[in-house]
Write a structure and sequence with these properties.
Helices cover 39% and strands 16% of the residues. The protein is α/β, with parallel strands linked by helices. Helix 3 links the parallel strand 5 and strand 6. The longest helix is centred in the middle third of the chain and has 17 residues.
Length: 376
């Protein structure tokens, strides 16, 4: 069960028992009040811009955050439900380590990206998006690019590399996504998504939940990252659509927990009604509606990864994630692997220093770049 709960499409772990839900009250000791206020992107990135790309008879617009002016480009692809802001703290760290440029993008239907068909999250379409954005940024002669993807973004990075959408690709780094574990987890993904709060009273409340539930274990990263995961409710709280979504949530819980008894059902209804009254923020993307694409992201991923001809780095939160193909490939030296224990699934958010160190060492070893003066 523990293995299944590392849901590899998501940039998060399931809530731990007792984790704060939306509207819950924290019990903090005297003098231990923590700051859950959001942090601005500008503390970590130098530039924010919207990049337009052609899409048949219209334009798609991708939100980009970037830093640096020299060295190879690190193209960062986030996990499902997250945004480019999940790379904020990592970006500040890696730019202090090596000569590089960083480009983090909000993928299709995520963050502040706006596309004509936001329902098409197929691996093929998302991989093409990456190629279009690179071409829009750099033209026909892009600089050397190291592609780095976490979870769903890691799968998309592999598909992008395999389809040669980034011709100047230097190397590939995939963070905590392995075909075997991901495929095993597909059956439990919907249960996980239902277990998350549907709404939050504020961005601060969302940040608090992400930290207390264990989804993001680094407070600083949570304060900048969660801004890209939630949005203000688009409809009035009393509208039929909002009321219907909350009612459906109650029905689902009742059907799943018939044995809990009448009192528990009543309590859950009351709690959901309280959330309804206070709801101001909800998730930017309904991941449950992307289910038809999950298998396409992950099936065959290990083979695709191993056949990519560029140097490869696989960073994992636990060695249990290795499947048979990758175990054999690792023994044959087809890629470099490093396990970063004591991290959740959002490895680059939980331990940005360790991920930056691993990546910097990998890139310098392959002579893609050099350490900055005074480091290490």
């Amino acid at each position: 069960m523990e293995k299944q709960l590392h849901l590899s499409m998501l940039a998060s772990r399931p809530p731990v028992p007792g984790g704060l839900q939306s509207g819950s009250k924290m019990r903090m000791g005297p003098g231990r009040k923590r700051d859950f206020s959001p942090l601005p992107w500008s503390q970590y990135f130098e530039v924010m811009e919207d990049v337009e790309v052609d899409n048949e008879n219209s334009k798609d617009t991708f939100r980009i955050y970037s830093s640096g002016s020299e060295g190879p480009v690190l193209l960062l692809l986030h996990g499902g439900g997250h945004s480019a802001l999940s790379w904020a703290v990592f970006t500040a760290v890696i730019c202090s380590r090596i000569h590089c440029r960083v480009v983090a993008m909000d993928l299709r239907a995520h963050g502040d990206t706006k596309v004509k068909n936001s329902d098409d999250l197929s691996a093929e379409t998302m991989a093409k998006d990456i190629g279009k954005v690179v071409e829009a940024l750099y033209g026909e002669a892009p600089p050397p690019i190291m592609m780095i993807g976490h979870s769903m973004g890691g799968a998309i990075a592999v598909h992008t590399a395999a389809a040669n959408h980034v011709p100047s690709l230097l190397g590939l780094c995939v963070i905590d996504v392995v075909e075997g574990t991901a495929m095993d987890a597909l059956n439990s993904m919907q249960n996980f998504l239902r277990s998350r709060p549907k709404t939050f009273k504020s961005v601060e409340n969302a940040i608090e939940w992400s930290v207390k539930s264990g989804q993001i274990r680094n407070m600083e990263s949570a304060r900048v990252s969660m801004v890209g995961q939630v949005k203000k409710c688009e409809e009035p709280l009393s509208s039929p659509a909002v009321s219907k979504s909350i009612t459906e949530g109650i029905i689902e819980e009742e059907e799943e927990e018939e044995e809990e008894g009448e009192s528990n059902h009543k309590r859950k209804k009351e709690e959901d009604q309280e959330v309804k009254k206070e709801c101001l923020y909800t998730w930017r993307i309904e991941l449950s509606k992307t289910e038809k694409y999950w298998e396409g992201w992950f099936r065959g991923l290990s083979s695709l990864f191993l056949t990519c001809s560029v140097p490869k780095l696989l960073l994992l939160a636990g060695v249990d994630r290795l499947d048979k193909d990758l175990t054999i490939g690792q023994m044959q030296g087809k890629f470099q692997m490093q396990v970063l224990p004591q991290c959740g699934h959002a490895v680059h958010e939980d331990a940005p220093d360790k991920v930056a160190d691993a990546l910097a060492t990998f890139m310098v070893r392959h002579k893609f770049t050099a350490f900055k003066e005074g480091f290490p």
